[in-house]
Amino acid sequence: MPQGGGQAPGPIAAFTRFVLCGGGIGLLSSLAVAALATRLPWILANTVITVASTLLATELHARFTFAAGTRATRRQHVQSAGSAAAAYAATSIAMLLLHLTVTHPGALVEQVVYLSASALAGTARFVVLRLLVFTRTHHHTGPTASTPPAFTGVPLTPRPATALAPAA
Predict the structure, then answer these.
(1) In the chain, what's the furthest Cα-to-Cα distance?
(2) With 90 as the cut, is the pLDDT of residue 164 above it?
(3) Which is nearest to 117 in space by CA: 32, 21, 44, 46?
(4) What is the DSSP string of 17-46?
(5) Which of 130, 131, 44 lies closest to 88 in space, CA to CA?
(6) pLDDT in tens, 31-74
(7) In terms of CB atoms within 10 Å, which of 7, 63, 148, 160 comes out highest?
(8) Are 107 and 126 in contact (CB under 8 A)?
(9) Cβ neighbours of residue 82 closer than 8 Å, sequence gap 6 or more
(10) CA angle centred on 97, ends 93 and 101, rounded to 5°
């Protein structure tokens, strides 16, 4: 159950929310990277925008996408940053390959390549965030049918039948 008390959204609803939040931030980030790249090297502009957008997206995902109902924890920010680092690497490699293969690709081609790489990386991020970062775990105080009891060091041996029978 989410920390805020609401129901966790199913995978379709969560993915829809992820696309709206993450995709919206991704589109804005794409424009911001292009604008910032006019003043900074592209790789540095991508780094700055990736850090800022990751912080914002993690908060939105905690509160809205995965319906935790509260702010993202430090652990969730760190884990989300790890998945964002992988996405950053994917977009950077895609842009590097573009510039190695096309001398002057133009802004439209750059945007198509960047957004395509972002979409692929974003889908992978959704899986990571849903299954690992914003997963719902229930803490049990004792063993369940699926978890065997812990070994205490005392072997479980049957008592002799005479020890269980009443004295005559």
Answers:
(1) 101
(2) no
(3) 46
(4) HHIIIIIHHHHHHHHHHHHHTTTS-HHHHH
(5) 44
(6) 999 999 999 999 899 889 988 988 998 999 888 888 767 889 99
(7) 63
(8) no
(9) none
(10) 175
pLDDT digits over 96-115, tens only?
Answer: 999 999 999 999 999 999 88
From 53, 51, 81, 76, select the one nearest 63 (Cα to Cα).
76
* Euclidean distance between CA atoms 90 and 81, whole angstroms: 14
Amino acid occupying residue 25 = I
By C-alpha distance, which of 32, 62, 60, 25 is closest to 48?
32
Q: Give me Rg for the CA atoms of the chain.
A: 25
Query: Hey, what are 10's tokens?
Result: 């199913």
Closest CA to 21 of 56, 46, 51, 50: 56
Joined together, the tokens standing for residue 142 give 């004792």
Q: Which of 155, 1, 141 is nearest to 67 (CA)?
A: 1
Phi and psi at residue 165, in whole multiples of 5°? -85, 145
Interior CA angle at 12 toward 10 and 115, to 5°?
135
Q: Which residue has the tokens 């096309």?
A: 102
- Give CA–CA dist 94/118, Å, rounded: 9
Q: How far apart are CA 86 and CA 38, in angstroms?
A: 24
